[in-house]
Design a protein that fits this description.
The chain has a 13-stranded antiparallel sheet, with no helix packed on it. It is globular. The longest helix is centred in the N-terminal third of the chain and has 4 residues, at 33-36. It is built from 1 helix and 13 strands. It has one helix at residues 33-36, and strands spanning 2-3, 11-19, 46-54, 58-66, 78-89, 92-102, 107-119, 124-136, 144-156, 160-170, 179-190, 195-206, 215-224. It is an all-beta fold.
Amino acid sequence: MWQQHPGETEGLFVRAGRFMPVFGLRIAEHPTYTRKWGGTPLYAETYGLAVEYIKSKFEVHATGFLEDPLIDTPEHSKGGAGIAEVRVSPRFSVGAEAMYTESVDDQKYRVGLVSKLYVAKPDLLLAFEGQFVNQIIPPRGAPKQIVSYLMASKPAGKAFLIDLGLGYFNENIQIKGLHREAVDLNLHWFATSHIEAILTGRFEMLGFGAEGPSAGYALAQLHYRL
């Protein structure tokens, strides 16, 4: 990485290497719809070049990338991504994003919006991302998709964090009944800077329960960060 002003958090940054394209909300919870179907699924790091400009009022990121030639990853695409965010106030930001990917199977054009709002009195952070995806599948398939996620995060004491998320994914808006919805609840316990325990649960529906059986799960996990 090259940094225009070493030791500072603003200015021009240029990075090259193996990393996830800078896109979307970039939240850690990878089962969220905008991670799983939004262009940045788990283990989908690419080899890329990113040019980024960050100021206190706004930031712009542009990434060009190639698929990993050494590891069989979930994404076998090359392309480019861009996102720009403006901090309207210290507590509210809004941004626009776009991504193009091309593989041997298809081409995908993504456009979307991201937004974050911090509400001080209940100490609550609201984060939203919505995408429209046009997938071109030769010779004539063209599913049009909607991917969106809304997450509310609230600290509970000094070591706990609660997330409540709502997801919506429609894999083809041209065909009735191909959408699914999810309600996620996560309880994080940050025992130390390196150790985290998390209890996570999801309830998922097909067509709001009208197009197929609903299901759910609960998982307890322990994370250690190197």
